[in-house]
Amino acid sequence: MNGEATMNMRWAKRVDRFLDIGQAKEQGFQIVQLPVAEIMRLDDRAFRDVKIDLLESGLSFEVFESPLPEGVNTTERGFNIYAWIEYLKKAIGRISELGCKTLVWGDGQARILPEEGEATVLKENFNQFLFMVAEIAEKKDIVFCLEPLGPKKTNFLNSLEEVASVLGSVGKKNLAITIASSDIIETNMKIEDIVHYGDLIAHAYLDSLEEVAGSSRREAASPQALSMPNDILFLSILKKISYNKVIALPNNADSETLLLCKEAWNRV
User: Fold this and answer.
1) What is the pLDDT of residues 17-64, one digit of tens each?
2) H or E segment at 213?
3) How many angstroms separate the CA atoms of 219 and 240, rounded?
4) Is the distance from CB of 263 to CB of 13 less than 8 angstroms?
5) How far apart are CA 96 and CA 99, in angstroms?
6) Torsion-angle region of 157 (φ positive above 0: left; ψ -120 to 50: alpha; else: beta)
7) Contact criterion met (CB below 8 Å) for 157 and 168
8) Which of 29, 38, 93 is nearest to 57 (CA)?
9) Contact 31, 246 (CB under 8 A)
10) I need a surface site. Which of 25, 63, 92, 236 has the fewest CB within 10 A?
11) Between helices 81-97 and 119-139, what is the axis angle to 10°?
């Protein structure tokens, strides 16, 4: 979907700040996943300087996350689509200059519907917004990914089926799905659903690393769903759908956990 079908799966580290990029490189990561807000807090001159440093770092910045600032809700009454589209034109332009190919949107607070009233209208507004963002991203050859989230995080788009339905109704070819290991439990995701929508999944990430580390101390068993730790199960499902894109690890990952994840991936 993003022109990388022949590439192997790659590991990224999610970091919140520019200050953490150097450490990620020292730990052996080749890809760093930053929030868009970290890029957008810079004025134009500062961005030019940072851009030079990032592009000379030897790291890849092919994935960014969280396109909107914290606290912005696209499904609330009065959300100004056009003002935020202007913001995203600049944001997507900047991350494109840094080599972004995938933009991930997994912020539950950004899509909470009101409990009653205008849900249908607000969903239509959301679809319009999604279409416009996808068009901006498409011009920069960027895949835009939505994540299904559990009811504790949002009350809108709570399953793979719902996300796939919205992507289908919006109809942009550069729209895709991202999934996290925690989504399996929080959205009651079935393995067969992940397999069914496998072609739409363009990004994945592990929420925690404790289970991966724990599993390395046990003998590898055959990947049976009921007996496997959630994160190991998640990796085995990604293997099942021949996943060959980026898996992002959390910001507490280090060189040891990166190695353990690589070993777990080769084992499942």
Assistant:
1) 999 999 999 999 999 999 999 999 999 999 999 999 999 999 999 999
2) helix 210-215
3) 21
4) no
5) 5
6) left
7) no
8) 29
9) yes
10) 25
11) 30
